Amino acid sequence: MKAAIYPGSFDPVTFGHLDVIRRAASIFDELTVSVLNNTQKTPLFSVEERVRILEEATKDLPNVKVDSFSGLLIDYARKKDVHVAIRGLRAITDFEYELQIAQTNRKLSGGELDTIFLTTSLEYAYLSSSSVKEIAEFHGDISQCVPEFVARLVYEKFGHEYKQQPLAERL
C-alpha cells in the first residue's frame, strides 16, 4: 500500500490545502493529514480543533485520515512507517523554503523520507492561512478562501458575526 503524510499547521485549512489533499488522495492509497503542534506559533485554533475541522472538511475522502503530531516529521513518519511527505507549493519562494526542509528531512531520515511537491492550482496560488486570518480579523470576506463552516468558525474566533454573502456577490 502506498501511503503519504501531508503535514502542516492548517490554521485554518484553506481551499488551497483541500486542493492538495484531494490530489494527493487520488495518488496514494492512504493519506494522513497531520496537524503539527508547532510550539513556535500561536495558532488561532487548537490542535484538537484543527483536527476536527480537517475531519469534517475531508469526510468525503475515504482514504484520508487526520492525525496530529509534535516534534520532527521524520520521527513521526518513522513511527507511522510512511516514507513520503506531501508539500504544496504556491510560488517560487515556497519552493526554496520547502526544498531546504525536504533535503534536511531526507538527510536526517537516512534517506527514508522523500518529499513530493504538488503545485497548488492557480486559482488558489494567492491563498495562505495567514492572509485568511488577517482578512477575517478586519471583517473581510473569506468565503472564497475556506469552506463556509470554516469561515463561520474563523469569524467566531475573532468575535465577529458570520454573514454569508449572496452567491452573486462572491462570484
UniProtKB/TrEMBL annotation:
Site location (Transition state stabilizer): H17
UniProt cofactor(s): Mg(2+)
Residues involved in ATP binding: S9, F10, H17, G88, L89, R90, E98, Y124, A125, Y126, L127, S128, S129, S130
Keyword Lyase: no
Domain Cytidyltransferase-like intervals: 5-134
GO cellular-component term (any): cytoplasm
UniProt entry tagged with the keyword Magnesium: yes
This protein's pathway: Cofactor biosynthesis; coenzyme A biosynthesis; CoA from (R)-pantothenate: step 4/5
Assembly and interaction partners: Homohexamer.
Family (UniProt): Belongs to the bacterial CoaD family.
Task of the protein: Reversibly transfers an adenylyl group from ATP to 4'-phosphopantetheine, yielding dephospho-CoA (dPCoA) and pyrophosphate.
Protein name: Phosphopantetheine adenylyltransferase
Organism field: Eisenbergiella massiliensis
The encoding gene: coaD
